[in-house]
Write a structure and sequence with these properties.
It is a single chain. Strands 1-2-3 form a three-stranded antiparallel sheet, with helices on one face. It has ten helices and three strands; from the N terminus they run αβββααααααααα. Helix 3 packs antiparallel against helix 4 and helix 9 runs antiparallel to helix 10. The longest helix has 23 residues. It has two domains: 166 residues, Serine Threonine Protein Phosphatase 5, Tetratricopeptide repeat, CATH 1.25.40; 33 residues. It is mainly α.
Length: 252
Amino acid sequence: MNYDISHLLQEWEYKPGQVVARRLKGTEGREIIQLRIDLGILQMFAQGRPDGKKPFGKESLFEHFKEKLEDFRIAHGGSDEEFELSPEDCMKLHQEALQYHHRYICLLQLDDYEGVLEDTQRNREVFDFVEEFAESDELAWSLQQFRPQLLMMETRATASQLLKAEDFDAALDAIEIGVQEIRQFYNDRSRTDLIEFSGEIQSLEAWMEEVREKKPLSEREQLEKDLQEAVQREDYECAAKVRDAIKKLQST
């Protein structure tokens, strides 16, 4: 068997700084997603755990740990006070969360917003789980530091859905909520020093400005723009007509 994939890489160009992804059927009929990276192709399954494995017979390692927690509570009269995740547990959950991270980056590029939200919600639950049960704050932060990336992706998927429906106001609200949630994340963890340097906040705020510029003007906004332009070119007859139109609109 020839294991050389050079011909695949030559046929599919890598583009630095861009997410280059595609969706197709695998040899077993399962849907797969491929991500072109600089040195090759990253392949994952579109459903279930991205690498297709079932740790301990579960859909994911996270599901296994949730079952362990429930077993612990049953054995301790409903209490989980002494349940802890070891450094190795946290590392394994982090590695698994990274698989889902790669997938929802691709799904966003492929305009599968529902898929993005499903995977980001899943990782949200993992982050919450680790934050609650990691044996130290340092272990918890090793995963929590990536929450702003998750929130940004979640915000982009939510707002993109709204923009697809041409609901610009709701999309802008969703982006603003996303920015505030990232800010709150840093505030809650006393890491306000990171807000100024947050690439996620900067990216969402820049996108917000782009959306505002593309948002269609309301009838009144268009008239006010026409009035300003008429005054600037000293077309006072036109300006008077536009003022009358604005007054008429106000009275209705």
